[in-house]
Amino acid sequence: MKPKEVNLTQDHVTVTDTFASRRYFRKFEVITSHLGSIAAQMQAEGDLGAEEVKILTRYMAEIGFTFRVLSMKYLLAGRDTGQFFGSLSIDTVDSGFPVFNELLVMANDAMQAESHLENMPSVEALKRQMVGQIVGEREIPTRLQFALSQRLYYEELVKGRLFWARNDPRAVWLGGDERRRYLLHWAVYDSAVNLPVVYLMELEDTGRHGLPRDEKRWPEVQAHLMGQALGGLKLVTIAKGFDERFDDLHPKRFRRLHLGPMYSHAFTRQSGPLREVLAEAESPEGQDWALAWTVEELESERVEEEKSGWFSTVEREVFALDPFGGRGADTGATRTERSVILPERPYQVLAEKNPAGFANVRKFVVSNAGRVLSYR
Fold it and tell me: Which domain of life is it from (predicted)?
């Protein structure tokens, strides 16, 4: 019997069927397992540096762990567990990812995970009780299964290494002496579109103390960057605001990576060519998906000096905007590259249909053997 799918009648829907919930998480397990290979492929082609790949790989692993945690939480979705328990909410129109509130609840649960575990039976005890109910009472131990899933959920939360709604800035030293160079990185789960977004900023530091060890500047930098981590803000707006706020920090290169949306004929109802491609491909379970991946990049073109007070000057960056078609003012970036990640079967349909607008979209194709191929 074919498992139930999600009722796609609203922008945000709940997955109330056990089989649909498990299919959804298996799909993301497959997708996230390939993201590290794609980052490595981009490094091999010169699009990413070694440090950037390390950072992105870590964030991608954390996203994978987050989905694993949520899969434990909603393992018994739709079953009679003997108590009121909500269902996974996903954004079927803008992202295909869980809604922002799921991560907020997860963060709150993480703060109380250890106290929950103290009052719960161990995994071994729950398994013994399950065997006893199956053998002795000849019943499916649904409520014990639910208790075990929640035990595993809290154990995963205690382990950490998850992608939270806010992932505060960290600094990686790249070298230099008087002009120390750092790669700052931070990430958020964008509440407007329910997608993970990663920021990377290369900068030069001419302050007296190294930025991460500066007890005054570093907290201010972290607070400022997190306050500006909004998808609606253009990169040039964020970079100029940062440049003007901190006279001794000079942003040279700024990237923002949007991971998603995820498209699936079974779970989402976005409009456009990708949905048509997935519908026509009629892919088997596990291959009915496509993931968009967008990288915005802003580079400093030159430096100008301006007066600061009576006797001193400060450096100000002049950023290069996209020169083609006057789009720089619209995008607020030097360049924007759009990519799509998808299995072989949907890619074949995409190549045959060749829809308008996809000629300049980079394609990462995952073979049945798990190998990632890049096509431009």
Answer: Bacteria
Amino acid at 292: A
Residue identified by tokens 């019943």 is 139
**Torsional class of 309: left (φ above 0), alpha (ψ -120 to 50), beta (otherwise):** left
The answer to whether 13 and 92 have CB atoms below 8 angstroms apart is yes
Angle at 292 between CA 290 and CA 159, to 5 degrees: 90
Give the integer Cα–Cα distance in Å for 361 and 18: 36
In the chain, what are the domain boundaries? 12-159, 166-375
Please provide residue 47's backbone torsions phi and psi, each rounded to the nearest 5 degrees: -85, -20
Question: What's the pLDDT tens digit per position in 138-152?
Answer: 888 888 888 999 999
Question: What are residue 203's DSSP bridge partners?
Answer: 182, 251
Parts of the chain with a pLDDT under 70: 1-13, 16, 78-86, 309-311, 322-329
Span 262-321, pLDDT tens digits = 998 878 887 788 888 888 888 887 788 999 999 999 999 998 888 776 667 888 999 998
CA dihedral (19, 21, 22, 28) positive or negative:
positive
Name the helix (H) or strand (E) containing 258.
strand 249-263
Q: Answer for the pair 181, 204: CB distance below 8 angstroms, yes or no.
A: yes
Predicted local confidence at residue 78, as pLDDT:
60
